[in-house]
Design goal:
- This protein is mostly helical.
- Helix content is 73%, strand content 0%.
- The longest helix has 23 residues.
- The model has no long low-confidence stretch (mean pLDDT 80).
- It contains three helices and no strands.
């Protein structure tokens, strides 16, 4: 009898987990697409300033335009969090 109860509990847990997997929204996909867009924008911002993204280190002599590009990237990445949590059917 105890083995039957354990098997039934396992089946119920499996069914609950399987049914919850169906309600997954594409929020993570939207988040990834948004992150890609942000990175494309910062790469073009760096290129317009005459620099290559990923090669400039932050310091006292960092050009203001690079700091502005980085601030824009940060703002864009924060906005992507909303895209990741927004349910998309």
């Amino acid at each position: 009898m105890a083995a039957c109860v354990r098997a039934l509990r396992s089946l119920i847990v499996l069914l609950v987990l399987a049914s919850s997997a169906v309600v997954v929204d594409s929020g993570p996909l939207s988040y990834g697409i948004c992150q890609t867009g942000c990175n494309a924008l910062v790469v073009s911002c760096y290129a317009a300033a005459g620099f290559t993204f990923g090669t400039v280190t932050a310091g006292a002599s960092t050009p203001f335009v690079i700091i502005t590009c980085n601030a824009g990237l940060g703002t864009c990445m924060v906005a992507c969090i909303a895209a990741g949590f927004t349910p998309t059917p």
